[in-house]
Write a structure and sequence with these properties.
Blueprint lengths: L1 E5 L2 E4 L4 E8 L7 E8 L6 E6 L6 E3 L7 E5 L5 E6 L8 E9 L12 E2 L3 E6 L1
Parallel strand pairs: 2-11
Antiparallel strand pairs: 1-3, 3-8, 4-5, 4-9, 5-6, 7-8, 9-10, 9-11
């Protein structure tokens, strides 16, 4: 399983970005839980959002609730993290991760497959 995150970039505070997590081959994305994590310079990697494999449960860290939305495409290959009303403190490298029939947990160990990160920079 290979993942590729994309969609990062530079945006002004209050702007929006949409991150994509593309999965190559194998079992469709629909059978995987997805998590997004981020790591800012000098800080530990932290949980951002998760989607249970069944698609019926989403979880967000408090600081992004109401601003970020995690979802999956119907094509079976792509997951998303829509980020609105971005703040400078959202600046980080963002990582997507998936787990077959996973519960969509907040921990690193909840996911087996990780993609390389994509940089998000929010200017004030």
């Amino acid at each position: 399983v290979q993942l590729q995150a994309s969609g990062g970039g530079l945006v002004q505070a209050g702007g929006s970005l949409g991150l994509s997590c593309a999965k190559s081959g194998g079992i469709p994305f629909d059978y995987y839980a997805m998590g997004w994590f981020r790591q800012a310079p000098g800080r530990e990697r932290e949980f951002v959002a998760a989607l249970r494999w069944s698609g019926d449960t989403t979880t967000y860290t408090d600081s992004v609730k109401g601003r970020f939305t995690i979802s999956r495409a119907s094509d079976g290959n792509t997951g998303y993290l829509q980020m609105n009303n971005l703040k400078p403190e959202d600046s980080a490298v963002y990582y997507c991760a998936i787990e077959y029939r996973g519960r969509g947990g907040r921990g690193f160990a909840d996911y087996t497959y990780w993609g390389p990160g994509t940089q998000v920079t929010v200017s004030s």
